[in-house]
């Protein structure tokens, strides 16, 4: 163990206990534990980036019904995501490792199926974290285009120009992840304050200016016009539930488990608390906008397809005012890009550590000379994959946009698998979890699995009918394509080299906070 890390562990008994728990799960402590409860909670909220996550897909929600879909869809998504957060928190508390969901599948499944289940889950996780990080970095680049549209309304941005902006955004995230890892917990705190103050500023400014006029409560909370989508009213509402994208990465915080002071306690609380906090943030962000919403056809006619900048400009009545509010959302997007890229790199590193990806020895190393220890090669691998996938945008924006849906589908499936396995085992494995759900566990787990499966359907559907090559949703095609590639790789290499996560050490002694009766569920 690195000298400074050893000193830190001596100074903080929690680190000693956490390292012992990690060794019981089959891993050695390699990362520096630098995050407490609020650090990891703020990182979870940074990854959610609620105002950014709600603003980025707002055009689809406007097409799919308008105010009713936006506000009540957010309520529905928040309440259906909470059971999933509780279910993940319960499992994460028992197995707090950066390996995350694929490790949970390995420990919860039967010996006959655990290897295949963990392989499938691991690749779902990998594709999910790479594409969700890509969606944020590329979405932030598109947000920059939207901001430029405030001052350059006639500028028709070319795909290669958007890609260059994407390269710049990605470069910033890599610089922070590589050279400023030691201050990332502080950056997450700054992100929380930026988001809180930003939402307050937007609420006040939008409510005071309302340059395009004010709507009645009946319009802001009850107007529903799904006709632009071409779908039937009921299904149009569900198609507009793209705010589910905001909560799609809640489980990624598990990848940071080995950098948290007390992960068995802090991680589940961060995952669960983030949902009500995110819900309230979204309400305070959306409600004033809906009461001052500009003309819908004008917003939907924006050339870039991203109406956020123009929307704020019209509400504020000036380009400067619109740009100021846009800059708040842009800042939230950049904080999100940094945090989610960090988490994606940890997930990549953990999967490589278990020999599940090509050249795993290279990508499983931890560079101890940078920022107290970072998985540098895993960071670079995750970044290169995003850059290569981003090239697809040069050929087809419609095919590229499928990656947003694929990210939600992969991550949702990866979260649902361990919950479903635990449910099939009648939740016997969770009896000694440090974060028990008790009698509420069964219904919460069931709702979580059903909601995750329903998301697979939602994010496979096109936003409008009839479909064209541009409006077609290729998410299901890309999802199946990645699944096929992972299956082929399993038969070519995985079944010979992948042995699954390390089994727990047999001779370790539980520390004073553990349940000595904990059994090995395999």
From TrEMBL:
<dbReference type="Pfam" id="PF13520">
    <property type="entry name" value="AA_permease_2"/>
</dbReference>
<feature type="transmembrane region" description="Helical">
    <location>
        <begin position="374"/>
        <end position="394"/>
    </location>
</feature>
<keyword id="KW-1133">Transmembrane helix</keyword>
<dbReference type="InterPro" id="IPR004840">
    <property type="entry name" value="Amino_acid_permease_CS"/>
</dbReference>
<feature type="transmembrane region" description="Helical">
    <location>
        <begin position="160"/>
        <end position="180"/>
    </location>
</feature>
<feature type="transmembrane region" description="Helical">
    <location>
        <begin position="232"/>
        <end position="258"/>
    </location>
</feature>
<feature type="transmembrane region" description="Helical">
    <location>
        <begin position="71"/>
        <end position="93"/>
    </location>
</feature>
<feature type="transmembrane region" description="Helical">
    <location>
        <begin position="323"/>
        <end position="344"/>
    </location>
</feature>
<feature type="transmembrane region" description="Helical">
    <location>
        <begin position="444"/>
        <end position="465"/>
    </location>
</feature>
<feature type="transmembrane region" description="Helical">
    <location>
        <begin position="270"/>
        <end position="291"/>
    </location>
</feature>
<feature type="region of interest" description="Disordered">
    <location>
        <begin position="503"/>
        <end position="522"/>
    </location>
</feature>
<feature type="transmembrane region" description="Helical">
    <location>
        <begin position="114"/>
        <end position="140"/>
    </location>
</feature>
<dbReference type="GO" id="GO:0006865">
    <property type="term" value="P:amino acid transport"/>
</dbReference>
<dbReference type="GO" id="GO:0022857">
    <property type="term" value="F:transmembrane transporter activity"/>
</dbReference>
<feature type="transmembrane region" description="Helical">
    <location>
        <begin position="471"/>
        <end position="492"/>
    </location>
</feature>
<keyword id="KW-0812">Transmembrane</keyword>
<feature type="transmembrane region" description="Helical">
    <location>
        <begin position="400"/>
        <end position="423"/>
    </location>
</feature>
<feature type="compositionally biased region" description="Basic and acidic residues">
    <location>
        <begin position="511"/>
        <end position="522"/>
    </location>
</feature>
<keyword id="KW-0472">Membrane</keyword>
<feature type="transmembrane region" description="Helical">
    <location>
        <begin position="37"/>
        <end position="59"/>
    </location>
</feature>
<dbReference type="InterPro" id="IPR002293">
    <property type="entry name" value="AA/rel_permease1"/>
</dbReference>
<protein>
    <submittedName>
        <fullName>Amino acid transporter</fullName>
    </submittedName>
</protein>
<keyword id="KW-0813">Transport</keyword>
<feature type="transmembrane region" description="Helical">
    <location>
        <begin position="192"/>
        <end position="212"/>
    </location>
</feature>
<dbReference type="GO" id="GO:0016020">
    <property type="term" value="C:membrane"/>
</dbReference>
